[in-house]
Amino acid sequence: xxxxxxxxxxxxxxxxxxxxxxxxxxxxxxxxxxxxxxxxxxxxxxxxxxxxxxxxxxxxxxxxxxxxxxxxxxxxxxxxxxxxxxxxxxxxxxxxxxxxxxxxx
Length: 105
What we know:
This protein is α+β, with helices and mostly antiparallel strands. It has helices at residues 8-12, 21-40, 47-60; strands at residues 67-70, 85-91, 96-102.
């Protein structure tokens, strides 16, 4: 449901959500929450460990078709000496978890 008064969705030209949307959204949220917990619980997760964690969590939640890829950090590059820790980004449309390099805390 979109916030607003009754009829808001129709006035905005928004169609009904597809069948199965709510359970899929719940499953995605649960996967993302577990992924966040796994990464936030460690001081610094490197690229290799990050790939393994992301893959295990995706598979455990039924997202086997999703891909894990490396994005670019603040320097515009991938993992390296300065940016050796992992933060996360999600692209549900492309079905990707993106490992984003960042500097160690």
